[in-house]
User: What shape does this take?
Amino acid sequence: MANLYEYVRHSRAAELAAGKPVKTADIRRTQHKNPIVRFNAKFGLRITLVVGTMWMAYLFTILAFFALPSAIHQGTYYIIVWLSSSFLQLVLLPIIIVGQNIQAAAADKRAEDTYRDAEAVLKEAEEIQKHLIAQDEAISDIVTRLEQMMNHLQLKK
Assistant: This one.
């Protein structure tokens, strides 16, 4: 009996087996072919890594407070200007970067987990294919035996 089904493996399965999950750092390393653009990206990332720490938030808080006495001396309008331009911008910038770094790490972790889940599903699907092939062979064997029995019974008539 011929095979009931011909399994054709999806092309993405080979790509998945050959690769690994893409992380943020991988994209940063391979994104630019131009050396100047690559340098700028690397330099910008370095500045972001330095500025994007809670220590820089503390340092910027102290720095912003140096301008507070002058703003108080000049009046309410300058206190609001100091608060919005000096304090909030200086302090919130590194805090926001810290939060984005945490979110990027979580996204990388989720991507890696999803990749591993996809690998597991692929392996399970391959096992299901093996099981189905084994069942096809068993069914084919049963059908062959039944046909032989039918032929044998017809010959006896």
Observations:
- Helices lie at 11-18, 24-30, 35-51, 54-74, 76-156.
- The chain has a mean pLDDT of 84.
- The two ends are 26 Å apart (CA to CA).
- The chain has one domain: 11-156.
